[in-house]
Amino acid sequence: MRTSPVRVLRNAFLLLSLVPGLAFAQADTGIFQEAWKTTQRNFYDRRLHGVDWKAVRLKYEPEAKAAKDTTELIDVINRMLGELKASHTVLIDKNVYKSHFACEMSGKQPLQAGLEVVRRDGGWFVGAVLDGGAAAEAGVRKGDRVFAVDGESPEASPHVVDAGNDRGIPGNPHFFVEVKKARPVTLLLQGTQDEASLRTVTFQPARGNMIEASRHSVRVLEEGGLRLGYVHLYHFLATQIGDIFSTAIHGELKDCDGLILDIRGRGGSPFVMNRVFRDVQRRWKKPVVLLIDEGSRSAKEIFAHNWKKAKLGPVIGRRTAGAVLGSNFMTLSDGSVLLLPVVDVPYLSGGVKLEGIGVTPDIEVTEPDMYTNGHDLVLDRGTDVLVRRVREARTRDAGAAAGAEEDARSAEGL
C-alpha cells in the first residue's frame, strides 16, 4: 500500500538530510537487495523517473558483491540510488540515525564539534559554524579553508563524515566534523588566500544541537544607528524551533527596527514551517529580510517560495537546493534506515514544482563562501539591504505624517 500525502506530512518530514557517516558495523551485501526492493516498492513515482530499475540493479550488483569494506558497499548503494535523480534518497546507518538525526527530533544534545565543511573547487571550506557551539567559541569562521583535522587531510580524516548528500542532484557535498569522545579537536585553517592567515585552532567538543544553536543565534545587531534583530533557524524539524522564533520576536527582538530571518541550512516539517511563516506574516509589522542559500532544503524552499509570493520582504542569498519531495524513513532488517521520497508536494507551494529547480533569491550573492576572512557574505548583504529598507520606511512614515498634519491644518482653515 502506498503512503498517503497526509500520512507522510504527519509522520515524516521534508528533510534536513542530517545523516553523516554512512557506515555499518559489518558489510552485508544482502542490504543491497533489500534497499533495491524497498525503493522499488515505495518510491513516490511508480515509473521510477523512467529508470529501468532492474537494469540498475544488474549494473551495481557486481560492485556490491565485490565491495572490500563497508564504505565501498555504501558508496555502491548510494550511487545506485543516485540513478533516480531524486532528493531525499539515501541509506543511513542505524547508529548514525540515532546519534544525529534523532537527536534533533528529540532535543538530545550529543557531543559535537559544531561545524560543517563543504568540498568545493578542489578544496575544503567551513560551510557552517553553529552559534554557541564549540567551534564558534574557539574562533572557527565560515569561509575558512580547512587543511587538516587532527593532523590529517579532510579526505583522509575519519572525523569528516558525509552529511547526507543526495547523489542524484547537483551541489557541493557537505560534511560534518564528527566527534565520538570528549577529546580536543585540532583544525588547521586559513582565513584568506594569504598564507600568513594560516592558523591552528584547538577546542574541546561540547554538547549541543541545532535547536540550541538556533536559540543562541538570537541577537541584536547595531548597524548605522539602527537596531536589527537576527535569528538563524537551522532547521524546521522540531517544535522548539517555532517556540524559539516566537519568543524572540515577542521578547528580545520586539523593539528592533527590522528583522533578519536566516533559514540557511537543512529542511524540516511543514508544520513548523507554517508556524514561523504565520508569526512573520501576522505579528511582525516592521521591515524584514530572508536569507537563503544552496543548503536551504525541502520545507525551507517551500517557505522561501511562499515568502516571495506573499511579498513579505526581500529574499537574499543563493538559489536553494531544489530538494523538495515528501519523504519517509524505511527501516531495513539490519536496523539501517532508507530515506525515500514517497510523495511530491507542489500543493504546499501553490502548485509550483520546486524539486530540481529551487528558489532564486531577489538579491543574489554570487561570491562563494571561500577565504572570506570571517565575513558571512550573505548576512553582510542582508544587513545592508535591511538598513536601507528601514530608512526608506522611516522616510515614508515621516512624509505620511507631514501630509496628515498639513491636511489637518487645511481642515482647520476651512
CATH class descriptor of the largest domain: Alpha Beta
Number of strands: 18
Helix coverage percent of residues? 25-40%
Q: Note the total helix count.
A: 11
Q: Separation of termini?
A: 77 Å
- Under CATH, the topology of the largest domain can be stated as 2-enoyl-CoA Hydratase, Chain A, domain 1
Name of the CATH homologous superfamily of the largest domain: 2-enoyl-CoA Hydratase, Chain A, domain 1
Shape: globular
Helix and strand composition category? alpha+beta
Q: What's the domain count?
A: 3
Strand content: 15-25%
- Order of secondary-structure elements: HHHHEHEEEHEEEEEEHEEHEHEHEEEEH
The main pleated sheet reads as: 6 strands, mixed
Query: What is the average of the pLDDT values?
Result: 89
Give the name of the CATH architecture of the largest domain: Alpha-Beta Complex
Q: Which blocks of ≥5 consecutive residues have pLDDT under 50?
A: 5-26
Rounded to the nearest angstrom, the radius of gyration is 23 Å
Written account of the structure:
By secondary structure, the chain is α+β, with helices and mostly antiparallel strands. The chain folds into 3 domains: 5-93, Transcription Regulator spoIIAA (2-Layer Sandwich), CATH 3.30.750; 98-207, Pdz3 Domain; 210-324 and 351-392, 2-enoyl-CoA Hydratase, Chain A, domain 1. 36% of the residues lie in helices and 21% in strands. It contains 11 helices and 18 strands. The strands form 5 sheets. A 6-stranded mixed sheet has the order 11-12-13-14-15-18, with helices on both faces. Strand 12 (226-232), helix 8 and strand 13 (258-262) form a beta-alpha-beta unit. Helix 3 runs antiparallel to helix 4 (70-82). The longest helix has 37 residues, at 377-413. It is globular and about 90 Å long. Mean pLDDT is 89; it is low at 5-26.
